[in-house]
Amino acid sequence: MAHNQDGNHKEQVHYVGDSRVRANRKKMYPPDYTEFPSKSEAFFPDFLLKEWMVAAVFLVGFMTLVMAEEPPLGDIADPTNTGFLPVPDWYFLFMYQLLKYKWASGPFVIVGTLILPGILFTSLILAPWLDRSKERRPSKRPVTIGLMLVSLVSCIALTWAAEAEHVTQLESSVGSPTVDKKVVDANSEGQKLYSENACIRCHGDQLQGKNGPPLLGVGNRRTAEQLHTYINEGKGGVMPAGMFQGTPQQQQILVDWLMKQKQK
Amino acid sequence: MLRAIYDWVDERLDITPLWRDVADHEVPEHVNPAHHFSAFIYCFGGLTFFVVVIQILSGMFLAMYYVPDIINAHASVKFLQNEVAMGAIVRGMHHWGASVAIVMLFLHTLRVFFTGSYKHPREFNWVVGMLIFFVMLGLGFTGYLLPWDNKAYFATKVGVEIAASVPYLGPYIATFLQGGDIVGAQTIARFFALHVFFFPAALLALLGAHFILIRRQGISGPL
């Protein structure tokens, strides 16, 4: 924009000294908003000496937050800690949550890792070319605004779901750093059912927990009814329903055995 | 005296046009909250920059104590937070500032989007802004690992695993991020370099471009 504003291509060009800076280079002046009859003012000092108050108010709020909440620091990283529930920082949660749905994980994981985020971010970057109309008012461009609102609501909902799920998972893993790592009644019918079904894959062969939370001491934390519900209906959107393939009698034996897993 | 020094420098370096260019440009009424309170939505961009400045300053002070290796990183952060005078405040500013920066950036992006300010002739500045967004997310991702606590370690591990699941490129991305086959000593050194040198450099360059473009094109007019 800055160059050849008048289209004088043939004009004789003069340079300053030996450098290639044009002696009569035209300055690019920003629009002065005189076309909008209003109270424009100079950036400095008029505007900035009032505007610093916005920053001051902001800073007071920010420092209040900083002083009220000490930044968290957990225990030093321990890669062998199998019970730790990983969670990304909150602004990545919506993408993290996406990967938990059946249609965006496993064989379809590319939907969650590439396709949906790709569509979202590509269309954001290309927004000026996707929405080419001259109209700027939100009410005059319903499609653009509508798409943005839909994506906004979905991102907020996904973040919300991820957070809620993390909280329930945290609750169910309370007490997981167990003192006593002994499985009660190890060579029993219940233990056999546990290892023959999918339970063992997530909760570990010694009930120590792998992808799922540990079940050591689960008898202290849960009632038999709760365990039946979790087995039948899944839990927290993470543990799928119907992982136990046995008869109802066998399920009762399994739950009885799990309820024996008590710790002092 | 000051005047004489200024004149002496100005005579040789011609600095007056530099600052007058910034000082004299007009701020239109419709973005000035002193005239219309609702114009505070136009402050989000400036406040994002303000938070970025807070991040850079607090980060420089954190770097005086932080040790980027797997043995000492956690201990150095713990020392900073519990022993150093004002350490908890400075780390708090950096920790919470990271989230606040994302929030302000998000609000600024929404303001630009809903007022249609990305339209002709400002398309390019929108793209620069989106790149700034990605750099900020990169800063958030790499900075999260540095305290080297369980939360940091496992979040990064999951993040790298997700990146690794991308077809074809995935394994290369994972190796690049980890600097090896596991999240470990190489990873923290690498994330430190990205967080402290590469991303801030990219961020400053992009911010410079963002501001030059605003000065060239002016703020978009009222709706």
Descriptive account of the structure:
- The complex is a heterodimer of chains A (264) and B (223).
- Chain A is mainly α and 264 residues long.
- Chain A has helices spanning 43-68, 93-98, 109-125, 127-130, 142-172, 189-196, 199-203, 218-221, 224-233, 248-259; one strand at residues 41-42.
- Among the domains of chain A are: 90-172, no CATH class; 189-259, Cytochrome c-like domain (Cytochrome Bc1 Complex, Chain D, domain 2, Orthogonal Bundle).
- Chain A is elongated and about 95 Å long.
- By secondary structure, chain B is an all-alpha fold.
- Chain B has 9 helices and 1 strand.
- The longest helix of chain B has 33 residues, at 185-217.
- The termini of chain B are far apart.
- The interface between A and B is large, with 76 and 86 residues.
